[in-house]
Amino acid sequence: MAALVSHSFAAFTSLPKVPPSLSATTSFLRPASHGVALQSPPVLPSDRSPTDPSESSLPPGHCTQIVQRHRHGRTSLPSALSASREPTETSEKETEKGTGEAILSLAVPALASLAIDPLMTIADTAFVGRASDSADALAGMGSSAALLTFAFYIFNFLTTATTPLVASRRAAGEENGALTVGGQALGLAIALGLVLCAFLSVFSDLLLRFMGTGITGPQAGAYAASFLSVRALAAPAVLFCSAATGVLRGFLDTKTPIVVLGGANAVNLLLDILLIPGAGMGPRGAAIATTTAEWVAAFWFGGVLAGKLPSAEGDLGQNRKGHAGPRGSDADPDRASLSSLDSSDPPLVVVPSFSIPPWAEVKALVVASSSVFLRTLVLQAAISSAAALAARSHGFGPEGPAASVAAHQIALQLWLLCSFVCDALAAASQALVADALGKCDDRRVKKITQTVLGYSLALGSVLATGLAVGTFGSDALSIERFFTADPSTQTALKPLLTLLIIAQPLNAVVFAADGVLQGAAEFPYQAKSMLLSVLVAGTVFVGLESPWLGVGEGDSNTLVHVWDALLVLQLMRGLTSMKKIVDSRGPIRLAT
């Protein structure tokens, strides 16, 4: 053992520096909860068999060691050294099965939690649309909701950047580092939420005019202003929930958000019933219902992360559990790097941090967040521009622009709902890829990527089938009739639903690929590729609206062309993401 430690320590000190987002603890002897934990020796490129196709050397700048946790006073050798170099057919099947189960164990709970959030807006849209005989209420709510979608989702880096940063530190044994990143993300979320709330409140009239309320009519504009004035108050809560979800995912907990958001959705639904058809408050009632529900969720998340309320998983929260037995490495390798704790250990506490830390401590979060922010800003600008262009369409029937905006609002909410469903696989791949890279298991990274892309294609096909039944099936299942009784809105919605059906398999693959790249911390590349994708989609839209193609400005086809461009946007996102995934110099190297 002494010889092994001596050899390993010498090898460890010669390792190249790794990026902060993937760096493990840099000391070979690390304090543990019971004495000193002796970590396993790293596996260097020279230790790998050059003829072994299952273990290709990692590219420069990516993980350079395998870190395994010491359990019960015994040191286990790295799997790369103790396992057979030539996996048997049985072990291959077991690995594939384990990967699929790991993905589903995270994706299925994430599916529920991600679908719950847009269901709030879907419920608001359905209640408002069915309670009004005209398109004005839904058009006003649609303009305001599109603005809020842009305003809130440009900050989704609070989830997508926090998750891999927390997960990689946790997987490498840096539990305190993971908690620190989580606290920084929560503090940043609250600060940004307060600024966003003030901005939306002060500049509401200007922002709504940009969204086309001056064209949809005074009544629709009044509904939009009323809706926005209330929903802006939820900005700190929405951003806090995003950061909290990122922290929980980083600890491989996708079940707690289900409970929290499920409870919030129940509050929203109850208040919708009381305030919209009951009190006749229309869009303002919908805004009050959703804002209240989002604050309930924020306080609930805060209680769990502060250790005051129980979590569904038990890794965070008041009911923190030990990790021996079924939660240990023998039962689930993706949770193997969590600390070995007694059931009596105090809960982990993640609270917002408002102090200004040294640059070295926040560099990884800032770099990742800024890249994701730029990427999301470009994407949401494209979606919000689509809503503004819909308002400028002459539309179908006498209600014109109002019907176009109402139809766009319904289609967009269905798009977002399906996108969040597909994003469940992205959430799973994001956490698992970051976890595998933190353990330097490049072979498992490829297996996760292959499996999640296959699952995404199947999920997209299921969603397309469901939408097709609602679009072309019987009147009892009609999506148009479910959301609105206005004939003009129904007519404008029909061609958009066809495009939604076509887009679902593509969307599913795009979101899964996004999750893989986010798990690999490829945030700058994603920002650049998003900018390119939006430029191509915008060029296609301009071409479709060009008079050389026989389409006049303000023609009723403008709304359809907006959605044609959105499909092109998704196609470009898919192509650029797959290029990086198969790149032999990238972190995934799926084609090698």
From TrEMBL:
Compositionally skewed regions (Basic and acidic residues) per UniProt: 86-99
A GO cellular component annotation in the UniProt record: membrane
Pfam families tied to this protein: MatE
UniProt membrane topology term: Multi-pass membrane protein
Gene Ontology molecular functions: antiporter activity; xenobiotic transmembrane transporter activity
InterPro entries (alphabetical): DinF-like (IPR044644), MATE_fam (IPR002528)
Spans annotated as Disordered: 36-99, 315-342
Protein localization: Membrane
Transmembrane segments: 185-208, 220-245, 257-276, 452-472
Broad class of the protein's primary localization: membrane
Keywords, ordered alphabetically: Membrane, Transmembrane, Transmembrane helix
Family: Belongs to the multi antimicrobial extrusion (MATE) (TC 2.A.66.1) family.
Protein name: Polysaccharide biosynthesis protein C-terminal domain-containing protein
Organism, as annotated: Chromera velia CCMP2878
